[in-house]
Amino acid sequence: MFNLITFLLALSLTLNLFAQGNDIEKEIQLEAAKELERINNEKGKLVANPEEIQKQNCSNCTDGQSDENNPSKALMSPQKALEEITSEPLKYIGRDLLPINDQNRSCLFENSKVVVIYNNCRSDKKEVRAQDINIISKNGGMIRFYNEIFGSNKAHSSIPRAEYDGTWTIEWTPTPKIEKATMKNIIDLLKENKNQTLSESCYIGSSFKAKERTAQAYCPSSKKYNYDEFKKSSEVFWSEPPQLWYDFQKNIRKLVVETKY
C-alpha cells in the first residue's frame, strides 16, 4: 500500500513538471513569434522608405558625388554655374600664382555658393586674348571656360558666338567640398585636382574649331557621377551661349578692374 501511494505521488509530480515544461515551451514560442513579427515590421518600413536605405548606404554622398551603389545628382551645368555667381555679390579673396596657371597670377572671388578664379589677372588689368575662368562649386565640382579668339581685338564680352574663331572649351572636373575658401585651401585643392587622373572629367570643344557648332560633349561612363544632364546643357551652351554668358564676362571684367590688389 505504501509503495502504491509513493508511486502515485511520483507520477503526479512528473505530470505536473511535464505540464509546466509545456507551458514554458509555449511561452518561449510565443515570445519568439512576437520578436519575428517585430523584425518583419522593421523590414517592411525599410522597404517602404527607400530614401532611408539610400541615406544608410551613402552617408558621405554630396551633390557632386556618391558611392557606387547610389547614382549622384546631376552635375552643375554651365548655365547653373553662372546663375550661382549672379545670385549673390562676389567678394575678393586674393591674387596669386595657382597650379592651373603658374605663369600669370589669378584673381579669386567668392560668394556663399561658388569660388570664381579669373586667370591671367594682370597687374595692369588689361584683358588678354585668352579668357580662362574656373568656377568651383562649394558643394563639389569645377567648371572651366576657356575662350581664345584670334581674329578680333575687341573685349571678349562684346564678341558674339558667331565670331569665335579659335579655341572654345568647357570642362567639368570633380573636386571635393569647400568648407572655407582661403587662398591656401584653394591652392591645395587645385594641386590635388591637377595630380589626379582626368578620367572622370567631362569636356566639350577643341582647339581651332570654335566655328564648328557640331561638337559633342565627351563624358566617361561612370557609376559615380551622373553626366547626362551636363552633356545636354553643355552642348547647348557651347553652341549658342545665353545672354547670361556675355553679361557675366562684362561683370567679371568690371570687378577685376575695380578691385585693388
What does this structure look like?
By secondary structure, the protein is an alpha+beta fold. The chain folds into 2 domains: 2-48; 78-258, no CATH class. 40% of the residues lie in helices and 18% in strands. It contains 6 helices and 7 strands, in the order H-H-H-E-E-E-E-E-E-H-E-H-H. It has helices at residues 2-48, 50-57, 78-86, 183-195, 228-239, 243-258, and strands spanning 91-98, 101-110, 114-118, 130-137, 142-148, 167-173, 202-204. It has a 7-stranded antiparallel sheet with strand order 1-2-3-4-5-6-7, sandwiched between helices. Strand 4 (130-137) and strand 5 form a beta hairpin. The protein is globular.
Number of domains: 2
Instruction: Kindly estimate the percentage of residues that lie in beta strands according to DSSP.
Output: 15-25%
Our measurement of the CA-to-CA distance between the termini, rounded to an integer number of angstroms, reads: 118 Å
> If you compute it from the alpha carbons, what radius of gyration comes out, rounded to the nearest whole angstrom?
33 Å
Broad shape:
globular
Q: Which stretches of 5+ consecutive residues score pLDDT under 50?
A: 42-72
Helix content: 40-55%
SSE order in H/E notation?
HHHEEEEEEHEHH
Which structural class is indicated by helix and strand composition?
alpha+beta
